[in-house]
Amino acid sequence: MPIVVFVLAVAVFAQGTSEFMVSGLLEQIADDIGVSLGAAGLLTSLFAAGMVLGAPVLALAAGRLPVRYSVTAFVGLFCAAHIVGAVTTGFAVLLVTRVVAAVANAGFLAIVLAALPRLVGPAVIGRATSVVVSGVTVACIAGVPAGTLLGQVWGWRSAFWAVAVTSAAVLVPVWMMLGGDMRDRAQPDGQAPSMRSEWPVLRQRPVQVAVLAGVLVNAATFAGFTYLGTITTGIGGSRWVPLVLALFGVGSFLGVTVTGRYSDRHRRRIIVGGTVVLAGVWLLAAVTAHALIAVMVMSVVAGAVAFGVGSTLIATIVQTATSVAPRTAGALATTAFNIGAVLGPVTAGLVVDRADRPTAALWCSAAFTAVAVGVAVMGQRPRFPSEVGQVRAGAR
Length: 396
What we know:
The chain has 396 residues and is mostly helical. It has 18 helices and no strands.
């Protein structure tokens, strides 16, 4: 595996830390800036919206540039947004920096995921994807707790500075290791495909199935994860919340690491079989959520299966779409999973309010995954990761 893939994972670690740590700093930010806690919550919702909108727009806008230029620019913009956010005293400016950071994050992921086939070759796309995605899981295990701790000790601005420093540290390695114009290597005639030529990939059944399954699986993941802390507090008190969230992160890391080793050879089995297992995992988590030890165990298991299947679906979307949509393949994967990250918590919130109990979020996760099972089974023919020749012919 090229070292640059691990360097890119470090950048994803910084981005994942930024995305999730703010939820633990909202009260401090609200007090310091002088806004309500509800208003401070916009910092998380606008980040998610920026991720959804930023991926397709920036993938198309930056797709004609050499990969080293676009990726380095996105990392630099992400770093600059956190520097401005760390020094600002105005809430409006802070909101803008979160949107800018989200857009840069989305553009980075879209370009990187689309570039993986050229960076590592088609035979190990699944493993390379798991390495990149592991940056998010390590952020859940170490980055988010560390950012929250920094915020508690030295103020929320110190957490923003830490993310900025981590991002800055990878700027030079990314620039050096992504040398050369990868676009030209992928297109020998030097002509990048037009935007119009890439849109037909959205009509291909294998792409539609992979994207829809990705949305549903990630919606299930974030529906359950969002209320995991609340469920834990209701059972054993708030002191257990950091441990349970860390266990979910550990499971996530194990899931992407293990499936990454086998997804290139057994992608279809992991997606179909893993989705079926995941539906059962969320059901079991919902049934046993009254016991603290069960919540701890199921946090590890749910994290492992959810992120294992999720990272495999990311690789599937990229490999399925990249032959005819090299600039939008990464954007499709990024957008699909961020739509799920928005859809899951919103739906779970409505269900939890109606049921008046946080464990209803786990039933919501089970429902999302059950639908994903039907989608995954429907996609057995043509098989995952797709019959590239059929997709190419359909686009033509």
